[in-house]
Every structure is written in structure tokens, then in C-alpha cells.
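Hi R.,

Here's the input for the iron/sulfur cluster complex you asked about:
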Amino acid sequence: MAKENLVEVVNLKKYFNVGKNKVLKAVDDVSFNIKRGETLGLVGESGCGKTTCGRTILGLYDATDGHVYFDGKDVHAMGKKDKLNFKKDAQMIFQDPYASLDPRMTIGEIIGEGMDVHFNLSNKEREEKINELLHTVGLNQEHASRFPHELSGGQRQRIGIARALAVEPKFIVCDEPISALDVSIQAQIVNLLIKLQNEMGLAYLFISHDLSMVKHISDRVGVMYLGSIVELAPSANIYKKPLHPYTKALISAIPIPDPKIEDTRKRIKLEGEVPSPINPPAGCKFNKRCVYAMDKCSQITPELKELEKDHFVACHLY
Ligand code: SF4
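And here is the predicted structure with iron/sulfur cluster in place:
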């Protein structure tokens, strides 16, 4: 494992048995890495396996096959002590800030819960740390005695972030952290995550179906389709020069703020629905929706190949 990689995902598979000998291949042979202090955006339509991938990386799901290494240690084969350290170092911020906070606990109790497991703090130190965290995420100490239902959606997501930060992690899986929020609040939360990353050197896996937000926060972007990565590249490359037909279609759907350019924007429309991951098409899983599909696309699965430095794509066109 390269030294600067904090997370390395190697041929990861997560399959679910869904009865009658059927298997749902939610994550199907996915490989990528995340460096210290880096943000990798993971995008794709809903149901493409992004969240399952994030949860399997965190060990919330057992892997069907493959490996996840964190700081060089295999997440799914850790002993008790390493597992406890990993639970501290790798956190998650959830999509729905309300559902992820226990309504019976005060904000102070929610933020302090993880600290009690991992640190041995006096009551005074604990209280000071909670107040400091509230301040860090743009709230104040009065919020510590309130309950989640007394806060707005944006404030609740700030609590979700403070809870993750409370255990001083190195890595956070941000699972659609802004999609349940008003547009006006979304940029605030993304900017807060960027600020915290700069201050603390955090690495993020930022999962989203919204490519415009992913662009703003990510150093590199991975595009997922039906459980597989179809393109992986530095953020600037993906947006300026997308190669995979699926990525091209997703990017063409992003509105452009300038009305003159927006009027002339050519949108590549995706035909049909995402096929079922229980019975995906043979060959390239995108072949039923791809305008460039050739005969071999329904027979041979394209491999993820490095076409330019750090720019990987899985498509028979290249
Ligand atoms: Fe389209 Fe074929 Fe490329 Fe798949 S492999 S994206 S079907 S051209």
C-alpha cells in the first residue's frame, strides 16, 4: 500500500441474497484509494451502490469479497484493539440529519457519546470540548441543552458533523450529507466541510448524486454505475473532459448558471431506467442505455483502464 494512501479499497464486493437464489450485486469489484487529507467524490444515480460501498468500507457491512485497508490494516480482519481505533478514526455523516440523531438525547449528550467511549475526560474537559465543537461547526454552547427537534435541518447536520469530529477522526464517509437540506444551506455545509478538512487534514469519501456539489468539494471523482466504477479521475478532468458515455450524460445534465450558455447547453438524455442490480445486463452494464453501444458491449465487460495519468475509464470506445 502506497504510504500516502489512508484508505485502499481492493476488488471490493458486497452482494446481498434476496431470496429464491437471487443475488443483488450492490458493490461489484470496486477498487480505489483515498489519500490523507483528500476528498474522493463518489457519484451516480440512486441505487448504483454508493452508500453500500461507503458502509462496507466502514465495516458496517461484511465484505462478500475483496479488501479495505485503513492505514495499512485490513478493516474486515482487524482484532479488537485495532477495530476500536478504526471506529474512532473513521466516521460517517448521514444523509438525513434528523433520523440519525436520537430524539431523546440532548445535543450535548449526542456529541459527548463517542468521546465517552474513546477518551477519558473529566466532566469539565468534556463540557469544554463539546462547547468548542459546537463553536467549530458554527453553533454555540446554548445548543448543548437542546433536543434535535428544536433545531433546523442545517443545524442538525452541523450537529452530525460535530458528533463525527468529537472523536478526532482521520476519515469521514459523508453519505449524501446535503441532499436533505435546502439549497441555500447546502453550500454552507459543503464550505464547512472544506474548512474543517483544511484545518484538520481530514480525508472524505463524499457520496452524492449531485455532480455540481461533488465538483466543488472533490479532488478526484469516481462515477459508479450498477455497482461498478466506470470512470475515476481528478475532478478537473472529469468535468472538462469526461470520457465514459454515462459520465458525459450526467455532466451534461448539470445546469450552467450563465443563462446565455445554459440556453445552448446540449443535454445527453439517458434512455430508460437503471436496470436491476439483481439481473444486470451482460457485458458492459450500461449497454442498454448507451447510444454508442456496439456488439461486443453486450458480450465483454470492459476493464477499468488508465487512459491518461490518473484518469481511468471502463469502456470499449477507448
Ligand atoms: Fe457504451 Fe459500450 Fe462503452 Fe459500455 S462499453 S459505455 S455500451 S460504448
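One thing worth noting: The radius of gyration is 21 Å.

Cheers,
M.
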